[in-house]
Amino acid sequence: MSTQLHAVTSIDLPNLEKIATGKVRELYKLDEGTLLMAVTDRISAYDVVLETGIPEKGAVLCQISAHWFNVLAKAVPELKHHVLSLQPPSQGLSTIEFEALKGRCLQIRKLKVFPIEAIVRGYLTGSAWKEYQTSGTVHGDKQAEGLRLSSAFPEPIFTPSTKAEQGDSDENISRARAAEIIGAKYAEKIETLALRLYTVARDYAAERGIILADTKFEFGLDEATDEVILVDEVLTPDSSRFWPAPVKVGVDQPSFDKQFVRDYLTEKGLKGKTGVELPATVVEETRAKYKEVFEKLTGKSLENTLAAL
């Protein structure tokens, strides 16, 4: 494993079969029904992976997902998810690899993943705000009049997108188009489940002084039982917009994510450029934000959480 500024930017497990590399995660085959998701400290912005990693980011993503899987499963008893274990596998790893993976990996079920991203929005921001300003719609659906930047929608809305290959951008699509892609039966199930999970998470976060503005879920299919299964990471700072409460309507909100990175790239004219290295100040500010939202949501320190594994 190679590191930069104590960040794990690559994970190489030569005794396991690597089947996919994402912007942040590496996926390995353990057996016919089980995969290992290993989470690096890589960070991407504007669809480009940067040269500099953010120390402990992978552990935050992994452990905050594990926390949310537990929270959601208790609140929605019928929910099925793909996590089998938070521990590295006992076979196929050296002692050094096993210890390095602790806290930043999940053993998960191998499932057929639906090729859409199930985005739920509770607040008007980002690409939704741009579309609303132009047409009064979000993903083609008409919205209430008079909304402002960062306004709460009267009710959370389901706004799917395509699931693009690495290096490409996801495309916002209508609910009708999502049904065409994956079938009306599964589209309805995913929409209903995504809205319910968002509502549970929104209320849970609000009790801790955090606004869940929007988030992205992904789902897979258990082909043996025809059940829709929650997969991938869930409710992390990479897949969600978390804001400190209260919301100030009419302006952009500060956020618990990679905003320091986006601001730096924009200011320096590096948006969308490859080969970019981040200064130490941006790295540390971003690391602090990831840890802060983890600790606010879980009520635990990251260090104690990792030590307990």
TrEMBL record:
Pfam assignment, any one: SAICAR_synt
Example of a GO MF term: phosphoribosylaminoimidazolesuccinocarboxamide synthase activity
EC number(s) given by UniProt: 6.3.2.6
GO CC terms: cytoplasm
Gene Ontology biological-process annotations: 'de novo' IMP biosynthetic process
Alphabetic keyword roster: ATP-binding, Ligase, Nucleotide-binding, Purine biosynthesis
Transmembrane segments: none
Pathway: Purine metabolism; IMP biosynthesis via de novo pathway; 5-amino-1-(5-phospho-D-ribosyl)imidazole-4-carboxamide from 5-amino-1-(5-phospho-D-ribosyl)imidazole-4-carboxylate: step 1/2
Source superkingdom: Eukaryota
Domain SAICAR synthetase/ADE2 N-terminal, chain residue ranges per copy: 19-273
Gene3D superfamilies according to UniProt: ATP-grasp fold, B domain (3.30.470.20), Phosphorylase Kinase, domain 1 (3.30.200.20)
Family membership: Belongs to the SAICAR synthetase family.
HAMAP family membership: SAICAR_synth (MF_00137)
Protein name from the UniProt record: Phosphoribosylaminoimidazole-succinocarboxamide synthase
